Sequence to fold (472 residues):
Amino acid sequence: MSETRSAQAASVIRHADVLIVGGGLSGTMLAAQLLRQPGERQILVIEPRSELGRGEAYSAVELGHTLNGNAARMSVDPDNADDLTQWLTEYIAAGGWPESDQQHVPVSELFPPRGIFGLYAQQRLAEAQAHSHSTIEHIRAEVIDLQVDECSTRLTLDNGQQLRGAFAVLATGMFPATRTPQTTSSGLNAATVDPWDVEAMTQLDSQSTVLIIGSGLTMVDAVVSLEQAGHRGPIEIFSRHGLLPHVRRQPPGWADFLAEDHALCSPRQLVREVRRQCHAALDQDVDWQAPLDTVRAHIGRLWSQASEREKRQFVRHVRPWWESHHHRSPPLSAELVARLHGEGRLRIHAASFKGVESSASGEVRILLRRRGEQQTTLVTGAALINSSGIEYDWRRVDRPLPRQLLARGLIQPGPLALGIAAHVSGAVLDVDGHVSQRLFAMGPPLRGMWWESTAVTDVASQAKALAARLAM
Ligand SMILES: Cc1cc2nc3c(=O)[nH]c(=O)nc-3n(C[C@H](O)[C@H](O)[C@H](O)COP(=O)(O)OP(=O)(O)OC[C@H]3O[C@@H](n4cnc5c(N)ncnc54)[C@H](O)[C@@H]3O)c2cc1C
Fold:
């Protein structure tokens, strides 16, 4: 029966101009930008989720799961930095997000809940659609295979359907880290909790000990969820370097010192100069975040110019510092983490995660090696939250599409095996290094090309440039 159904579906090949694989923020912003291009084209976005524009990040239902930058920094319109502020002003005036008035700051300084940001992205897509001669359709399915010939691309979906398009774009986002503890024993299944699942957290004993692996922004979300769920017990956080993200403040402007000095390029030189600038700022009573924030605009250039050795040095020595200083926490969440830390209820440990031991009692037992120690330590808690991050190496991603693309030689790993290799236009490189005329990528899959290729503003500017390229 299922074979017949898939054979029937496979015989129906739909055609389109652009096939977008993934309808998170990247795929949705690309669709919106394509709709704004002159001419008529048919765009299909293939996304298993019920709504476009959300992905993992903007499906958040918890109001405390906010953007990590304020509205002034998170426009999806590269030509209008105030776009989110303007949309949010209207949204709040229409009665949306009533809790925002407790913050007593201008709309541009609010850190919107990510679920509301998802609505904004959807509305911008709908507006682009309303004014376009092109069409867009959301097909709810997973792409499991992709083939490319000289004139077209062909996708196979998990329902057996086939789609053919002049171009295909990989907007598949981020894949969870393979370091995810394996949930093999039933005891562990019961004790492992998703960082964003407030409902599951309400089931925990409110005084129980919760263990968290990873200390970045996903951990911050998890702590917000635990608090919201009524958890009041100890929270033990383990990460390799034991660093907590800094709080995001609103620093004043600072001279763009990297624009003036293109000779600076090695990680060592960069760190030395950034430190010097931060000290200079502090000497003038200016927030150290001011000079640091000027670096962001140059990261893509610095990363792509760096040799492989320098990239490795950056990842090994600078990355933990960059993550905690640059990927900063929204103020309300940071306040909560700081309060729990100050009360001694939340503790952060520098330790490497080594594995999980099954436990008949329903508790979770994890093996760790604390920094500077040789032996492993067993730690027990009532629940384990994995917030250890993202798997950027596609060779380790256990999903059909990455596997097929690699097996067909249509892609090759990006620098340091971060994501996939591509030309500056976003056209992917095949296994022999040829630049594809048909297959493109954007957002997190291009991590290895730009280092920062994930945030709202990265995705928004890539969407605009790629739409212009595809419409040529
Ligand atoms: C929890 C979280 C919070 C974040 N917060 C911020 C923030 O505050 N500020 C900021 O600037 N950035 C933030 N980011 C980063 C960034 O904005 C997001 O990663 C952004 O969602 C990237 O969009 P994307 O569409 O590329 O990826 P995703 O949102 O991951 O979407 C990719 C989509 O592709 C689909 N997909 C994958 N494979 C296939 C396939 N084979 N077939 C069909 N569909 C497929 C998935 O279902 C998914 O919906 C956050 C990220 C996360 C995960």
The chain has three domains: 2-65+113-176+392-470, 186-246+329-388, 257-326.
